[in-house]
DNA sequence: CGCCAGGCCTTAC
DNA sequence: GTAAGGCATGGC
């Protein structure tokens, strides 16, 4: 077992692990005390969160070796503590975007009442940079689905098709962690298998998308390096991926901080607070609200506003 | 029972 | 390019 601590009180704009992992951006971490997103711990709690990462789902530079890696992290006054089955500090800096200059990002954001309240409510919340394929599948599953059930669907896919790693839990007793499956393993699932996991009509979407990635012709990470709107268009080739899901993958995995996923909550916010940004279609509304939310940091503003509206 | 949940696909104009 | 209808599942 390897352990380490990252001094986070030096990070610009601070860091808040709980809101970062429980704000509906990532579906790949679980709180060790068993509580879910819907029953969040009191703010400032120091609960452990754990995940398991299959190296085949992340860049080689982030995780060496072939076997899945179990990771847990917790925040305790000014420090991010971690324990894992391998060296994961570079991986954590990437996944949690600890290099982001939050103070500068906020300074580039507009500060109307809603946005200021949202920033103040979750100081230190960061956008995540989850592995591309697991993020793609998570958000295919998110269509017309409550957040708690998206967690359940992702958990079930990892349990049934993900590779495992043995690692002691916070209490020291050995347990088995399941990484999110690779495209190859998920493509082996049948549509019926996935329906049994509660995916409903998303089952064939996930299966066909996993097949596309496993076949090697397309990969969500290939959207990196494209201009934003071309990257969004590229991702819609995957089955079950429209413009909204594509924006989620761009923002929560691929580092496109200008992406503003237009979900039901943001549509409500647009109607109520930014009615002049409402347009007839996704692309035009997207451009208008992106401009209003500060352009290249608009995704940060969206994520704060989304979580603020959902929890108030 | 009806309505809704971080929408997308297919079909018809 | 835009609009309408269908779609699985579970919570309320």
Helix fraction by DSSP (H/I, runs of at least 4): 40-55%
Radius of gyration: 19 Å
Distance between the termini: 40 Å
Number of helices: 14
Q: Report the biggest beta sheet as strand number plus sense, adding barrel if it closes.
A: 5 strands, antiparallel
Question: Judging from the principal axes of the Cα atoms, what is the shape?
Answer: globular
Oligomer: single chain
Based on secondary structure, the structural category is: alpha+beta
Strand residue content: 5-15%
Query: How many distinct beta strands?
Result: 7
Give the topology string: H per helix, E per strand: EHEEEEHHHHHEEHHHHHHHH
Q: Main sheet: which strands, in order across?
A: 1-5-4-3-2
């Amino acid at each position: 077992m390897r352990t380490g601590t990252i001094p986070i009180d030096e990070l610009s704009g601070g860091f808040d692990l709980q809101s970062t992992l429980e704000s509906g951006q990532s579906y790949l971490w679980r709180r060790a005390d068993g509580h879910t997103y819907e029953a969040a711990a009191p703010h400032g709690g120091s609960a452990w969160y754990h995940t398991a990462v299959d190296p085949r789902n992340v860049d080689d530079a982030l995780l060496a070796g072939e076997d899945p890696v179990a990771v847990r992290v917790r925040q305790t006054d000014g420090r991010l503590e971690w324990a894992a089955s391998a060296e994961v500090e570079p991986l954590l800096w990437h996944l949690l975007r600890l290099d982001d200059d939050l103070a500068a990002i906020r300074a580039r954001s507009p500060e109307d009442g809603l946005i200021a309240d949202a920033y103040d409510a979750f100081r230190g919340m960061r956008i995540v940079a989850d592995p591309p394929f697991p993020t793609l599948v998570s958000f295919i599953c998110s269509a017309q689905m409550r957040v708690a059930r998206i967690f359940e669907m992702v958990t079930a896919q990892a349990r049934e098709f993900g590779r495992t790693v043995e690692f002691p839990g916070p209490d020291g007793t050995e347990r088995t962690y399941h990484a999110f499956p690779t495209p190859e393993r998920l493509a082996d699932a049948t549509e019926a298998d996935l329906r049994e996991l509660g995916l409903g009509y998303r089952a064939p979407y996930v299966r066909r998308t996993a097949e596309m990635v496993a076949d090697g012709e397309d990969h969500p990470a290939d959207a990196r390096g494209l201009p934003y709107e071309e990257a969004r268009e590229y991702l819609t080739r995957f089955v079950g991926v429209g413009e909204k899901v594509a924006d989620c993958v761009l923002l929560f995995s691929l580092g496109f901080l200008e992406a503003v996923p237009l979900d039901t909550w943001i549509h409500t916010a647009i109607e109520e607070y930014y009615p002049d940004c409402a347009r007839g279609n996704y692309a035009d509304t997207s451009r208008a609200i992106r401009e209003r939310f500060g352009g290249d940091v608009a995704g940060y503003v969206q994520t704060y506003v989304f979580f603020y509206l959902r929890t108030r």
